[in-house]
Amino acid sequence: MLRSVAREGHGVAEVAAALRHYWEWTGRINPPARAIRVPPRPEMVCRTLEDDETRTLVKTALGWWPQGATVLMGLYLALRRFEIAKAEWHRFDPTLDWYRVTGKRSKTATLPVHPVLRSELEGHRQEGFLFPGRFRGSVNPVTVGEWIDQVATAAGVDNLVPHRLRHTSLTWAVDAGKQLRDVQVFARHSDPGMTAKYTRTTNRKLRDVVDALDYLG
Question: pTM of whole model > 0.85?
Answer without folding.
Answer: no
